[in-house]
Design the sequence.
C-alpha cells in the first residue's frame, strides 16, 4: 500500500500483506507500518473485507456522530459549547489509542464517533449561533462536506486523478505544512491579537481555510486508495472499522474548515 496522510491508515501493513495477518498473535506477517505494530483483529474470521463492510461500518460511525452531535446542539447555550473542549481532548486520546493499539477495537471506534459528535455539536453551536449568528451555515457546512466527499469519491472511482507516490508525498507535505502554520498561529496569538491572521476572519484567514479544505478533499483520495488496496488484498473484515475511523477523521476536519469558512463570510 502507498503511504497515506491519514494516521488511521499508517498503522496498517504495507506490501499488500493484509491477508497474511496472524490475528491470534497480533503480529503482521508483512512489514509493519509507520508506527511499527499493525492492528489485528481478536481472531481470524476467515472472511475478507468487502466494500459493503466499509460502507456499513462508516455509516454506523457517522450515524452515531450525527446523533450525539444533534443532541449536544439541542442542549444549546453555554452548556453545549463547554462540552466541546473536553470532548475534543477525550476524542484525541481515543484516536491516539486506536492508532497505536495492536488490535482493531470496534468499541473504541464507536466511542470516538460518539465523542466527536459531542465536539462537533458544541462547535457547530459556537460558530453557527454565537459567532456567525446564522444557524443555517451548519446545514450548509454539512451539505458542503457531503458534496466534497461524494465528488472526491467520483474523482477516485473514475480515475480522473490517480493516486501516485508523487501526489501522496505532496499531500502529506501539505498537511504537515498547515499543521505547523496552525501551531505557529496559535502560539503567536498569545502575544499578538489574531496571531498570524490565519483565523481572524480576514482575507488571509479565508485563503487559509480554502487551502485546508482543498488538502482535506485530496486526503480523501488517499483514504479511498488505502481502503481499496485493503479490499483487493483480502484484509480481514474487522479492519473495516479501522477504515471507517480513518474516513471519520478526514470528514471531521473537512466539516470544521467549511463551517469556519462560512462563519467568516457571515461576519464580512
Sequence:
Amino acid at each position: 500500500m502507498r503511504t497515506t496522510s491519514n494516521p488511521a491508515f499508517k498503522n496498517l501493513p504495507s506490501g499488500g500483506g493484509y491477508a497474511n495477518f496472524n490475528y491470534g498473535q497480533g503480529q503482521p506477517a508483512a512489514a509493519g507500518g509507520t508506527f511499527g505494530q499493525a492492528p489485528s483483529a481478536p481472531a481470524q474470521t476467515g472472511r475478507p473485507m468487502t466494500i459493503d463492510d466499509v460502507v456499513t461500518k462508516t455509516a454506523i460511525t457517522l450515524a452515531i456522530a450525527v446523533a450525539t452531535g444533534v443532541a449536544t446542539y439541542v442542549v444549546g447555550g453555554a452548556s453545549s459549547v463547554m462540552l466541546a473542549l473536553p470532548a475534543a481532548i477525550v476524542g484525541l486520546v481515543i484516536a491516539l489509542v486506536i492508532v497505536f493499539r495492536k488490535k482493531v477495537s470496534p468499541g473504541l471506534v464507536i466511542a470516538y464517533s460518539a465523542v466527536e459528535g459531542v465536539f462537533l455539536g458544541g462547535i457547530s453551536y459556537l460558530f453557527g449561533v454565537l459567532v456567525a449568528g446564522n444557524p443555517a451555515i451548519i446545514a450548509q457546512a454539512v451539505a458542503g462536506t457531503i458534496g466534497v466527499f461524494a465528488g472526491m469519491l467520483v474523482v477516485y472511482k473514475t480515475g480522473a486523478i490517480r493516486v501516485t507516490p508523487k501526489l501522496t508525498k505532496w499531500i502529506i507535505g501539505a498537511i504537515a505544512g498547515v499543521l505547523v502554520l496552525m501551531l505557529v498561529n496559535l502560539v503567536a496569538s498569545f502575544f499578538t491579537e489574531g496571531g498570524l491572521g490565519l483565523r481572524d476572519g480576514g482575507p488571509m484567514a479565508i485563503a487559509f481555510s480554502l487551502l485546508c479544505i482543498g488538502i482535506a478533499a485530496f486526503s480523501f483520495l488517499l483514504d479511498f486508495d488505502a481502503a481499496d488496496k485493503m479490499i483487493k488484498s483480502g484484509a480481514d473484515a474487522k479492519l473495516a472499522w479501522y477504515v471507517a475511523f480513518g474516513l471519520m477523521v478526514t470528514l471531521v476536519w473537512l466539516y470544521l474548515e467549511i463551517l469556519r469558512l462560512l462563519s467568516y463570510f457571515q461576519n464580512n
